[in-house]
Automatic annotation (TrEMBL):
Belongs to the GTP-binding SRP family. SRP54 subfamily. Gene3D superfamilies: P-loop containing nucleotide triphosphate hydrolases, Signal recognition particle SRP54, nucleotide-binding domain, Signal recognition particle, SRP54 subunit, M-domain. Its main location: cytoplasm. The keyword Manganese does not apply. It catalyses: GTP + H2O = GDP + phosphate + H(+). Keywords: Cytoplasm, GTP-binding, Hydrolase, Nucleotide-binding, Ribonucleoprotein, RNA-binding, Signal recognition particle. This is Signal recognition particle protein. Residues 263-276 form the SRP54-type proteins GTP-binding domain. GTP binds at residues 102-109, 184-188, 242-245. GO terms for molecular function: 7S RNA binding; GTP binding; GTPase activity. The gene is ffh.
Length: 440
């Protein structure tokens, strides 16, 4: 999904604004990428309609490419679609009871162990309960995991009544001061009445503080249908989306929230029980987009970049009229955006390059001092310092005023001249390439 979305957004790169025409193509491609990733048709359509509306209504930030802008819009919408903010598990009650539901092979037993381990690390006393009574191997599987993690597993191998086992386990937990009871249940290969009856009886009897529906992300559209079938019967509180480490196309994460009004709370990204992944809609959105930190870069630029000022400078650049005042004002803008190195490293592909570079905000100090010592006329008319007959004495005066050497003043002037030449060249270049360079 990320590759396709990237491709879709790339088509916008290089164009200077988002228009009805170029956005329509991109939107079409985004919709196709979503459908290919098994996102439900209605969800994909609503999603792209909303992105389109936002994109067209958006004032383009001069500091930011339209393609990047669209990434930001898509990112915001994806985050919203997946529930907006992270949702915590409810562990109220003494003991708190967490009930697992889901088809066979979805990852209930594995996730039960992961969750137990996660809570144990938070210093909670956790009891795992084996309620899959149909396969003897199921009890063994949970016991083995429990041993690995040093977590007690409650089971009654002879008892075939899961509701009874669970009730006994809760009694046992109360007596032994366990704080959380995690009830692992049996699943079937497909949704069937017996399984649904059993899980709803368990839910009614235990009154868990949290019922989690566990589903295999690799099953695509089926994951959404199963989620709905379970939800109609047992109104669970949250979803666990497992096997996102495989070649899962991510569509399930996007559709489920829209189809059942319940948040994804955890994801599974491996068979190992060591780590539990709490689901963060925003992080999942970046993962789907796979666009480095473009999003945070755009956010920062949006917050800080003064659009009018950027427009003014851009205009002067185009007319080859860039002067010291503009130079100074750009330095101020860059400084407002924070550490220059940080900022550069957020650009995809640039990150590694700047790591070893020696750039910091102090680099601007001498430049600022020198420009500040220029008269307004000198700032607006650099020729006074470059070619005018009074240039030499002016430079001396500036050096004195700024506490810098004439050599340093000369260096800055030389750099400025080179910059002017570059700007001229850029302006001679045709089309959007020049525009892009200018913005940089
Ligand atoms: P249950 O039948 O619902 O209890 O499912 P299990 O917990 O026994 O898991 C079924 C299979 O999926 C096992 O082989 C697990 O190791 C595997 N599994 C579970 N969660 C994940 C996951 O997040 N990623 C991967 N790759 N495999 C998983
Ligand atoms: Mg199991």
């Amino acid at each position: 999904l990320s590759e396709k979305l990237e491709g879709a957004i790339r088509t916008l790169k290089g164009s200077n604004r988002i228009t009805e025409v170029n956005v329509a193509n991109t939107i079409k491609e985004i919709r196709r990428a979503l459908l290919d990733a098994d996102v439900n048709y209605k969800v994909a359509k609503d999603f792209t309609d909303s992105v389109k509306e936002k994109a067209l209504g958006q004032k383009i930030q001069i500091a930011v490419e339209p393609g990047q802008m669209l990434v930001k819009i898509v990112y915001d919408e994806l985050t919203q679609l997946m529930g907006g903010t992270k949702q915590d598990i409810n562990l109220s009650g003494n003991p708190a009871i967490v009930l697992m539901a889901g088809l066979q092979g979805s990852g209930k037993t594995t996730f039960s162990a992961k969750l137990a381990h996660y809570l144990k690390k938070q210093n909670k006393r956790v009891l795992l309960v084996a309620c899959d009574v149909y396969r003897p191997a199921a009890i063994e599987q949970l016991k083995t995991l429990g041993q690995q993690l040093d977590i007690e597993v409650y089971s009654e191998p002879e008892n075939k009544n899961p509701v009874e086992i669970a009730q006994h386990a809760v009694e046992y937990a109360k007596q032994n001061k366990y704080q959380v009871v995690i009830v692992d249940t049996a699943g079937r290969l497909a949704v069937d009445e017996e399984m649904m009856d059993e899980i709803s009886r368990l839910k009614e009897t235990l009154q868990p503080s949290e019922t989690l529906f566990v589903v295999d992300a690799m099953t695509g559209q089926d994951a959404v249908n199963t989620a709905k079938a379970f939800y109609d019967r047992i109104q669970y509180d949250g979803v666990v989306l497992t096997k996102l480490d495989g070649d899962a196309r991510g569509g399930a994460a996007l559709s489920i929230r829209a189809v059942v009004d319940r948040p994804i709370k955890f994801i599974g990204t491996g068979e190992k029980v060591g780590d539990l992944d709490v689901f963060h809609p925003d992080r999942m959105a970046s993962r789907i987009l796979g666009m480095g930190d473009v999003v945070s870069l755009v956010e920062r630029a949006q917050q800080i970049f003064d659009e009018k000022e950027a427009e003014r400078i851009n205009k002067k650049l185009r007319q080859n009229q860039f002067d010291f005042q503009d130079f100074y004002s750009q330095i101020q803008q860059i400084k407002k955006m924070g550490n220059v190195k940080d900022l550069l490293s957020m650009l995809p592909g640039v990150g590694k390059m700047v790591k070893d570079l020696d750039i910091d905000d102090d680099a601007f100090v001498p430049i600022e001092a020198i420009i500040q010592s220029m008269t307004p006329q000198e700032r607006e008319n650099p020729a006074l310092l470059l070619t005018h007959r009074t240039a030499a004495s002016r430079k001396q005066r500036i050096a004195k005023g700024s506490g810098r050497s004439v050599q340093e003043v000369n260096n800055l002037l030389k750099q400025f001249e080179q910059m002017q030449k570059m700007i001229k060249k850029m302006n001679q270049m045709e089309g959007s390439d020049g525009g892009r360079l200018r913005r940089m």
